[in-house]
Design goal:
single chain; ATP-binding; two-stranded antiparallel sheet; 3 domains; two-stranded parallel ribbon; mainly alpha; Rossmann fold; 8 helices; DNA binding; coiled coil; ABC_transporter-like_ATP-bd
């Protein structure tokens, strides 16, 4: 692929020239994540293993990272809930199902189909258990509670694609909240160290803080 300088790579990862002298300790969570990726890429490893690399990255930076990883010449192993990232940067997908690693020739779509089949089978099994329990306790008030518990277990069962989607939504919300908190702390630190006579600059920082808190 086309060779790039460290400076060009930093710019592609969202770092501005004036940030070159910024201490790493002063970077936000997303910036530190990008810095880690930058240092790894500069080492040019033959094998790159990444666990949820999209965490703390906004949509634009995620797209930049995907572009970089998509052209990575070495072996890339990615663990992620982001199906679009996996499909973009990897050639083969695998899933951990029932404690075993399973190859997915059909990609993420095959995984979702497997989870739907699991969910359907589990729901049918739960429904059968409930119906059998209901027949066994007909007219027996002492066993009514058992039937009710079985029914609740059937209704509350959540697995497969529904569980996958719910987990992904919760994870996305948690990452969003963490990012907002980091941005808030960064703005407050800038306000605390800002020149008190620079009213325009303070007003801009205050507007950023208000926008952050309104999200």
């Amino acid at each position: 692929g086309k060779e790039v300088t460290p400076g060009q790579l930093m710019e592609r990862l969202g770092f501005k020239p004036e940030q070159l002298m910024t201490p790493i300790a002063d970077l936000s969570g997303g910036q530190k994540r990008r810095m880690q990726l930058l240092l790894i890429l500069l080492n040019e490893p033959n094998v790159l293993i990444m666990d949820e690399p999209g965490n703390d990255l906004d949509t634009d930076m995620l797209a930049v990272m995907e572009d970089l990883l998509d052209t990575w010449p070495g072996t890339l192993i990615v663990v992620s809930h982001d199906r679009y990232l996996l499909e973009r940067v990897t050639d083969q997908q695998f899933a951990l199902i029932d404690g075993k690693i399973r190859h997915l020739p059909g990609g993420v779509d095959e995984y979702l189909k497997i989870m739907e089949d699991y969910e359907r089978a589990n729901m049918q099994e739960s429904k059968a258990d409930f119906e059998a329990s209901s027949r066994a306790v007909a007219g027996d008030s002492s066993d009514a509670d058992s039937a009710e518990k079985s029914n609740q277990k059937y209704e509350a069962k959540l697995s497969g694609k529904a569980y996958y989607d719910a987990t992904r939504r919760v994870s996305a919300i948690e990452r969003k909240l963490e990012k907002l908190e980091e941005e808030k702390n960064e703005i407050e630190q800038k306000m605390a160290s800002h020149d008190p006579s620079d009213f325009v600059g303070l007003q801009e920082l205050n507007e950023k803080l208000q926008a952050n808190q309104s999200e």
